[in-house]
Amino acid sequence: MDKRIDIQLLRALAVIFVVLFHLEIAGIESGFLGVDVFFVVSGFLMAILYKKGEAKKFFERRAKRLVPAYFATIILTLIASLFLVLPSELGQVATQSIYGLFFANNIGFWMQNSYFSKSDFNPLLHLWSLGVEIQFYLIVPLLAWFFRKSKIFLFLAILGSFAACVFIVGISTKTSFFMMPLRMWEFLIGFVVAFYFTNNGSVKFNNFRWLGLIGLIILCAIPFIHVDGQTLNRLQGHPSFYALFVCVATSLVLGFGLPKVLENNVISNGIAKIGDYSYSIYLVHFPIIVLYLYEPFSGTKLYPESYVDKGILLVLIIVASILMHKLIETRRFNNIAAAYLVSLVSIFVLTGATKVVPNMMYSERDKNIFNGLEDRAPYRCGKLVRITDPKAISCKINAEHFDQSILLVGNSHADSIKIAFSEVASQHKLNTYFLVSNTPLMDASVTPERLINEAKSLKINHLVLHFSPKALKIETIEKVVDLAQQNNMKVDFILPVPTYTESVPKIIYQNNLAAHYDIKKYQSDNAEFFAQMEALKSKYSNLQTHEVSQIFCNTECIVSDDAKHPYYFDDDHLNLTGAKLLKPVFEKVM
User: Cα separations (Å) of 182 from 159, 174, 177, 238?
Assistant: First the structure.
């Protein structure tokens, strides 16, 4: 296949949108759709580059093309992190690097959080797409064999993957986002275009180049497409029908090309040059942004607040992209196995250094603070429940089996106390059930009616609610209590814990006394809610409330013990150590 300017234009457009999205430039709220463009282009090229019976050569060519720059990015990010970030974040970089070593970046981030969450420090987050892509390459020979046996298999694979993707979006958006089988349909759209609309990759329908222009115009509108990457709505979510729209637009350009006047001009050639560098740009831009804007205990910060920072970041990305392209990406690596071995050893040595170096540099006090960030329980009901049992409303979180049970209800604040709560419940011979949804009673995932029906199905007559401040409307709480009373159920409401304006480990580390809470501020911030709950107590005999101020606040609210073990892992969520302080409250609940 001759080099096609239009493909390089697609790559340039995609990487520009992704970089601007990661820089949080106003108006580029859906720039992440650029990755969907990359997937279609990649599938198109794989259909052309793979030749029957040449699987070994195919893998070698792909490895030589992708692996050196990929591992260089991981190694350089690890080295920079050793010097720039605190151990609280350094361990996260090391974990990401290990997943990257086995091309399982997407799986590692799937186990962590949503792509759109910034609570964790993720300078290698962008490599999730390389994990998906490389995993797809591994099955290309098998797919090609099936497609040769029956053409219908290709279309069935696209339909099956897309249908599964859209279905899972309604259950777990991050699963559809990160998992290769649920993204496979995007690559296979590229396969269809290559097989049926081109002559081995070259445009054969020259009279229909105007269709390619329509596709390009659609792609230029990506920044104006509003896509909610975290909604469970199957129409508006991602990847779903908006992603399909972008993939079809990309396939129009790949299949029909662009009018010659758009390809043969100085501007297009200049933009196409960005396409030549797109892989290197994609690799280097995200770690540079995240490391440059790094603030301890603040997760992943992307938005450069000043124009000076924006300018510096753009210069750094341009320079680093050129160096990566010239020195690594386009360099010939004849022995790719040796390059992988060197990378493997380097990453293992550097990840080992992330464990050793902090022990030499920081005091026991500081290490206690850093450890507080990792002092937390697995997410809600576990990572696989939404997939293995998509209809589940609740899950049992204690290992023992008792005759009676209690149901813990709440958002992420309830999630942070569930282990300590379950321990106390077990001492009282009670199973602890917990809700799968992270936003019960806050949206349509779990309504008051659905909650009571779930309790009835589990033969539970005791509900315990715990939410962050102002998370629930008082009308919703009253609805739950009223329905519970009608069904002879008791409701205990554990009042909100003190929350802070910045990370508690950061407050402790910097000894920032100005950020500490006092009892008066805690009471004034929650005064209206406390009064509303008192009114409900007087109205309903089945409702009890439980204060936490006597545990966390005297005159000043406490955030750690004397050895500086934090009670929170961020600005408002108790860690396991902090949750244990609430055991006397849980005893009263039981």
Answer: 11, 11, 8, 11
- Could you say which DSSP state residue 126 is in? G
Residue 364 lies in a domain: no
Residue 409 region by backbone torsions, left for phi larger than 0, else alpha for psi between -120 and 50, else beta: beta
**519 lies in the same domain as 433:** yes
**CATH for 519:** 3.40.50.1110
Assess contact for 75 and 346: CB atoms under 8 A.
Answer: yes
CA distance 2 to 286: 31
Task: Give the Cα separation of 455 and 555 in Å (integer).
Answer: 39
Which sign, positive or negative, has the C-alpha torsion 518, 522, 527, 531? negative
* 351 and 389 inside one domain: no
- Which of the residues in the chain have pLDDT under 70? 1-2, 383, 386-387, 515
- Nearest Cα to Cα of residue 192 among 155, 229, 144: 155
Rounded Cα–Cα distance for residues 295 and 311 (Å): 19
CA angle 258–262–268, rounded 5-degree value: 115
Structure tokens at 33: 């759709």
Supply the pLDDT for residue 4: 87
What integer pLDDT is reported at residue 224 of this predicted model? Answer: 83
Q: Per the domain annotation, does 379 fall within a domain?
A: no
Structural domain that includes position 431: 385-589
Q: What is the pLDDT of residue 386?
A: 66
Within a domain: 365 = no
Residue 333: inside a domain, yes or no?
yes
Residue 311: both structure tokens together:
């300018």
Do 349 and 449 fall into the same domain? no
Query: Helix 278-292 crosses helix 266-276 at what angle (to 10 degrees)?
Result: 70
Best CA proximity match to 465, nearest among 490, 428, 483: 490
Query: In this structure, are strands 198-199 and 202-203 parallel, antiparallel, or unpaired?
Result: antiparallel
- Check residue 533 and give its pLDDT: 94
Burial 357-395 (b: 16+ CB within 10 A, else e): ebeeeeeeebbbbbbbbebbbeebbebebbeeeeeebbe
Number of domains in the chain: 2
Short-list 140, 129, 150, CA closest to 43: 140
CA atoms within 13 A on the CB side of 248: 9
Q: Which residues contact 505 (CB under 8 A, 6 or more apart)?
A: 88, 297, 369, 370, 372, 373, 566, 568, 569, 570
Q: Using an 8 Å Cβ cutoff, are 209 and 258 in contact?
A: yes
Q: 239 preceded by cis ω (within 30°)? A: yes
Q: Report helix angle 87-101 to 105-112, nearest 10.
A: 140
Are 268 and 208 members of one domain? yes
| Co-location of 314 and 393 in the same domain | no
pTM beyond 0.85: the answer is yes
